[in-house]
């Protein structure tokens, strides 16, 4: 099954092995449709992670850099069991208008960033997680 990733599961990132250990193969780089916002949030363990949210009004949205992977269907449940809240897997619209399974984030992360919560920051303007990390020097 096709799976779109936008953060720590990208090639070269710390959680990419969760995909490759389950037999996933890289298909190509891609972009989401211009209907998403991207946030960096710090979880309860102190780790910073990305979360992509599709708001109802499309306000402040952009196309986000992603990668498309082919994950064996029989390993989907094992993969999903590794994903902690507020992240999850849902339908993600790609730039070409097609939908695939991919990472999404609960809306409270966007709401927390909009209210100035120091653990949540909007990073949509970077166009993707790798660009944000590059700007941070990591």
Account of the 3D structure:
There is one protein chain. With 138 residues, the protein is α+β, with helices and mostly antiparallel strands. It has four helices and eight strands.
What are the key terms here?
three-stranded antiparallel sheet; 138 residues; single chain; five-stranded mixed sheet; alpha+beta; globular
Strand content: 25-35%
- Kindly provide the radius of gyration, computed on alpha-carbon positions and rounded to a whole number of angstroms: 14 Å
Instruction: Write out the strand line-up for the largest beta sheet, numbering strands in chain order.
Output: 2-5-1-7-6
Low-confidence stretches: none
Main sheet summary: 5 strands, mixed
Mean pLDDT: 97
Helix content percent band: 10-25%
What is the 3D shape?
Answer: globular
